[in-house]
Specification:
This is Hexosyltransferase. With 546 residues, the chain is of the alpha/beta class. Helices cover 54% and strands 9% of the residues. It binds 2-acetamido-2-deoxy-beta-D-glucopyranose. Residues 115, 118, 120 line the site of 2-acetamido-2-deoxy-beta-D-glucopyranose (NAG).
Length: 546
């Protein structure tokens, strides 16, 4: 019996000791959590996704320290709630005015970054820009000196990743000098370079060799602030990739959250992988989505199909009459389908010349100007309209697509909308050309083509379908070349930026040549058709796309 008691006591003692150890452990951890923090800054809603991904990457790498985001007035309440739901401590700050008169406009509030030196409720903070991600734990960074950063271009310090020991005296000293010290960038980075003028001579921080006493300044190696610009130069990380800690997506307008960047900058894939796994902190925000963009994407995706359907039914129930671009697309698609069903020749340019010799001849005569009078500069105007339409379509598609959608979604919508807009614009031009053809026939007192009389009766239907195959060839040719141009670097696995751009430029040249050729042919066909229909009006629907 008595033997049991001590064992019971021993057991309880063990439990107590364990509990004490645990408590001490968590207490110490909590203390560390309260003493040190990761910090980032947010000026507006555009960078929210960046901050979310950064937070996720830090948490995935493993940490018990605080994640703090300093937000200014430009950040909406929704974004603040979202970041809080993500686990950030959100602190509101007022902007520090930029004392420099000459500065890039986007630098209006960047001196605010200096406020991290005033976060005196923490012993040490690791600051990371919103366009960085942590790919491997950087907990050891908190052991480096009182001020640590990374050197970049020409011995200058980069303020994208910094370790700071906040201090009221240091901060007020900085504030005293803000107006007198020069800033080569016109922002905080330039100022800090002037403030820590001797920074380039600091020792490199080595996590495994702590220096006592703690140095004033220390340099972080490139591993802690690896610039994608560096990657783009050599198409590989010029440091040991397995040891890489922080990737910094610096390239000016190529921010990782914009969908097109993933198609240009390979390391953005790492960023997108983390983004895909973002938790649904607030409804509809999983995977870095945002409810507003989701709705816009759905509308943008289905709208062209709806237009197509409406146009299709319109063309079924309303024969001839006024033709809208979209309606004739359907009519044209339907006719093409019927033609395939009746197993006629495949659409190709040579077929057109062979089966409809009369049309071919008239086309040739038309080129030599012997038979048909084309308006002066007709070809030049057509090509110009074609390229302006293409540019407008591209710009329009680019503007209406939300910037922060996933890369594939962006590409798909871009393609869909560029083509739809181009089809509507250039289709309208062809419609104008057709009317132009009608009026010019009237005006000139144009004689019917001798040859066209031959097939006026029996040949009209055939002529119609030939014209459709022609149009199908040109339109689908443009679409296919555009797809090949866009996707060829991805399909061929080319990641080097310059090789990629070169390939796309080459594709662009091919596309441009084909568009020149196709647009002229489409326009001339439309013009000829206008003249013919004027002279031999028939109650059939007009295909103005050819
Ligand atoms: C710096 O921090 C102190 C105390 O935390 C605060 O009272 C002061 O307003 C801060 N200064 C600036 C310019 O934000």
């Amino acid at each position: 019996m008595w033997r049991r008691r001590p064992s019971g006591v021993g057991f309880w003692a063990a439990v107590l000791v364990a509990a004490a150890v645990l408590a001490a452990g968590t207490g110490a951890a909590a203390a560390a959590g309260a003493e040190e923090a990761y910090v980032t800054l947010l000026y507006g809603d555009e960078f929210v996704l960046g901050v979310r991904v950064l937070g996720k990457s830090i948490r995935d790498a493993g940490t018990r320290r605080d994640l703090v985001v300093l937000v200014s007035d430009g950040v909406s309440d929704y974004s603040r709630k979202l970041l809080e739901a993500d686990g950030f401590i959100v602190k509101h700050i007022t902007l520090l005015a930029n004392p420099n008169q000459v500065r890039p406009t986007r630098f209006w509030g960047v001196y605010t970054k200096l406020k991290i030196f005033n976060m005196t409720n923490y012993k040490k903070v690791a600051y990371l820009d919103a366009d960085t991600i942590v790919v491997k734990s950087i907990e050891d960074i908190f052991n480096c000196g009182k001020f640590c950063a990374n050197l970049k271009h020409s011995e200058r310090m980069n303020s994208g990743v910094m370790v700071v020991e906040p201090s009221e005296t240091l901060f007020s000293n900085m504030m005293d000098k803000v107006n007198s010290l020069p800033s080569y960038t016109g922002g905080d980075q330039g100022f800090l370079n002037s403030y820590y003028a001797d920074f380039a001579n600091s020792r490199v921080y080595e996590p495994n060799k702590p220096v006592m006493p703690e140095p004033e300044t220390q340099r972080l190696s490139t591993l802690y602030n690896a610039d994608v610009g560096l990657y783009m130069l050599a198409n590989k990380w010029m440091v040991d990739e397995k040891e890489l800690r922080v990737i910094h997506y610096t390239l000016g307008p190529l921010k990782p959250w914009d969908w097109w960047t993933a198609w240009l900058v390979k390391p953005v894939a790492v960023w997108q992988d983390i983004r895909k796994n973002l938790e649904e902190s607030l409804p509809g925000t999983g995977g870095g989505r945002n409810p507003h963009d989701q709705l816009v994407v759905k509308i943008l995706f289905f709208l062209p199909f709806c237009m197509l359907l409406c146009g299709y039914y319109g063309s079924c129930f309303q024969t001839n009459k006024e033709l809208l671009g979209i309606r004739s697309l359907c009519a044209f698609a339907r006719q093409a389908r019927q033609k395939y069903k009746s197993e006629e020749a495949l659409p190709s340019y040579s077929t057109v010349g062979a089966t409809s010799s009369s049309f071919g001849i008239s086309n040739q005569k038309l080129y030599s100007g012997a038979h048909l009078k084309l308006p002066s500069y007709f070809g030049a105007i057509t090509v110009l309209v074609c390229f302006i339409s293409a540019l407008i379509s591209l710009a329009f598609a680019f503007i209406i697509i939300p910037r922060q959608v996933m890369p594939w979604t962006g590409l798909l919508l871009m393609y869909e909308w560029t083509f739809v807009t181009f089809f509507l614009l250039f289709g309208s031009y062809l419609r104008v050309v057709y009317t132009w053809g009608c009026s010019s026939a009237n005006h000139v007192g144009y004689n019917n083509l001798d040859s066209s009389e031959n097939h006026a009766g029996a040949g009209s239907q055939r002529n119609m379908s030939d014209c459709d195959t022609d149009a199908a060839f040109y339109w689908s040719g443009m679409a296919i070349i555009a797809i090949i141009t866009l996707l060829s670097p991805t399909v061929l696995g080319i990641t080097a930026l310059f090789a990629k751009l070169g390939l796309m430029v080459a594709g662009g040249v091919v596309l441009a040549s084909f568009m020149t050729y196709a647009s002229e042919h489409l326009a001339i066909s439309a013009f000829v058709k206008g003249q013919r229909d004027r002279n031999a009006p028939r109650g059939r629907s007009i295909c103005f796309l050819c």
